[in-house]
Amino acid sequence: MTTGPASTLLDLRGLLLPELEGFVERLGEPRYRGRQVARWLYVRGAAAVDEMTDLPRAFRDRLAEGAKIGSLAVRRTQEAPDASATKFLVALEDGRTVECVRMRFADGRRSACISTQVGCAMGCAFCATGLGGFSRNLSPGEILGQFLLIRAHGRARLSNVVFMGMGEPLANYDATVRAVRILAAPYGMGIGMRHITVSTVGLAPQIRRLAGERLQMTLAVSLHAPADSLRDHLVPVNRRYPLAEVMAACREYIEATGRRLTFEYVLIDGVNDGADEARALGRLLAGARCHVNLIPLNPVDGIEYRRPPMARVRAFASAVRSAGLPVTVRIERGGEIQAACGQLRLAAGLGRPSRWTPAAQGAQGASPAGARSS
Ligand code: SAH
Ligand code: SF4
């Protein structure tokens, strides 16, 4: 497993059903109690063992002696001006903070954008998270806790989950894959695997490993440049895993899973948004079963890059399209907020600390029991 926060008690949130079943059996309970515990953890979102009121008191006491449910506390919330998103600043048990977002789409979909690390070690040149460096990996329970907290916040069902918050999910591989499995499990959150998207900076060995898991989720690969010379600069990890290697891993992934891959490309004014780059991107991806997602840059305080004018964005999109690739641009209402999901400390409509609203009553539990939204 991953390096989570130090604690002597096992965090139940983050265990797969067979592990919960094994755990309760070791406490002398029948196996079916494992399923009951899973239901409390993932369906009802219990914040403490004591909330599991249909379990015998003696069993709850024994459970609480060796295990706990990790707690996350909402420190601040922030609403997008157009109500298309709510951002949460969440304190972990060790006092470190991450951010996650509840997003609302015009077609009724509700999406949770969650973080996998405190900070990020990849240092992409345009990313606010990268600016602050890396602190630690999140545990599976901390990743799932964000989902539960977002779910408890609203009434409408969450249909999608995107791993596009702080951190590089595939640099915290085990915790990410575990969280994906529990999110999609019938005993877990019941989110359709196809409605889960993991975004990666392009760690080739981990993309290959993920291909072997044969998960039917969506993988999004952050390209941002069609050639190594430029990508080396924007995405420093490209020096370790250059484009040819990333693309080979992507082809392997598409082949193994039968899934269409998404390529993300942040457009930066005068840096990677020219006609030459658009044509090169078209050539690089031609024939691949993929979708291209263009994200006009959200400016970051302290980083000089700018967002290109819309005419340039449109020209880039149509040049890529003419190579036969499906292209979408994240620009409409709420677009800034969606993009901000990857650089959550930004000022892009959501990020200025002065505009945060303190959470009512200070700290809140991750998710009150029975608060499943639907
Ligand atoms: N580490 C992963 C996932 C988190 S970032 C990754 O890099 O893919 C999610 C997305 O937001 C990535 O495509 C990332 O490139 C993008 N992003 C980061 N900073 C941005 C910014 N300032 N403006 C727009 N998109 C940004
Ligand atoms: Fe890390 Fe992704 Fe930001 Fe790059 S874009 S620094 S990989 S969070």
From TrEMBL:
Source superkingdom: Bacteria
PROSITE patterns: RADICAL_SAM
GO cellular component, one term: cytoplasm
Segments for region (Disordered): 355-374
GO biological process, one term: rRNA base methylation
MF-aspect GO terms: 4 iron, 4 sulfur cluster binding; metal ion binding; rRNA (adenine(2503)-C2-)-methyltransferase activity; rRNA binding; tRNA (adenine(37)-C2)-methyltransferase activity; tRNA binding
Pfam families: Radical_SAM, RlmN_N
EC number: 2.1.1.192
Catalytic residue list: E99 (proton acceptor), C341 (s-methylcysteine intermediate)
Domain Radical SAM core: 106-336
Miscellaneous comment in the UniProt entry for this protein: Reaction proceeds by a ping-pong mechanism involving intermediate methylation of a conserved cysteine residue.
Protein name (Swiss-Prot/TrEMBL): Probable dual-specificity RNA methyltransferase RlmN
Species of the source: Candidatus Segetimicrobium genomatis
Recorded name of the encoding gene: rlmN
